[in-house]
Amino acid sequence: MLKGLYKVYMETVHGTRRGVLYVYDGKMMGGNLAFAFIGTYRESSGEVFAELSTRRHNDDPAHQPLLKTDVVALTLRGRQQGEQYHFEGGTTALPGIAFRLVMTPISEATAPPVISPGQGIANGLYSIHIRMLDGIDGGNTGVVLLLDGAMRGGDAYFDYQGTYASSNGKWKGELINHEHTPSEGAPLLFGGYEVGIGFSGTYSEGGAVATATALVGKRSVRFSAVLKKMAEA
């Protein structure tokens, strides 16, 4: 059965992109450094039929859309091949442009257990924009799904698996950051490590903020994170 956390590889004649998807209860939620992926799926007679749309969350022009438009609705058809799922399809907005997607499962064996049903902060898919603290340059962007106390998300290179509790406008939790695909350019700060992260902060109707501490090898690194809700879970 198609369910759980996956890294995704996407390809058209215009190039390739990577990201993550969390699949559950007929829904697909995920994204990468610049875009959120929001969709649904159904399984029938060994095939999977999916409807997937994209929405930009990072305005940096360096991150261009694979299909040359920020908002696109894809129709995909696929089936399981070994442990992977292979899809092909396209969009009526760009007829004749074939879109290929490969989903590879990511183990959730080390994900922190849910500690609370998460009744405070709203379930949903959120963009997450990270900025390093204490004089360290850099940051990162991605997406994270908050769902009844569980966190699943990531970007082109990393996946996030965590748990949280929330009430009365405050939330806290922990997550594990894994590198699911090595960077093709300069090494990333968390690259090559399984990073444990603890965080706390506040939330409102449309988003949340948090301050977090990550243990990178023997080094402790602090960063701030801003979450904005992109879609209902």
Notes on the structure:
The chain has 233 residues and is mainly β. It folds into 2 domains: 4-105, T3SS negative regulator GrlR (Lipocalin), CATH 2.40.128; 124-231, T3SS negative regulator GrlR (Lipocalin, Beta Barrel), CATH 2.40.128. Helix content is 0%, strand content 61%. It has no helices and 16 strands. The chain has strands at 4-12, 15-24, 27-31, 35-44, 47-56, 73-81, 84-90, 99-105, 124-132, 139-147, 150-154, 158-167, 170-179, 195-204, 207-216, 219-231. It has an 8-stranded antiparallel β-barrel. The protein has an 8-stranded antiparallel beta barrel with strand order 9-10-11-12-13-14-15-16. Strand 2 and strand 3 (27-31) form a beta hairpin. It is globular.
Question: How are the secondary structure elements laid out?
Answer:
Layout: E1 4-12, E2 15-24, E3 27-31, E4 35-44, E5 47-56, E6 73-81, E7 84-90, E8 99-105, E9 124-132, E10 139-147, E11 150-154, E12 158-167, E13 170-179, E14 195-204, E15 207-216, E16 219-231
Antiparallel strand pairs: 1-2, 1-8, 2-3, 3-4, 4-5, 5-6, 6-7, 7-8, 9-10, 9-16, 10-11, 11-12, 12-13, 13-14, 14-15, 15-16
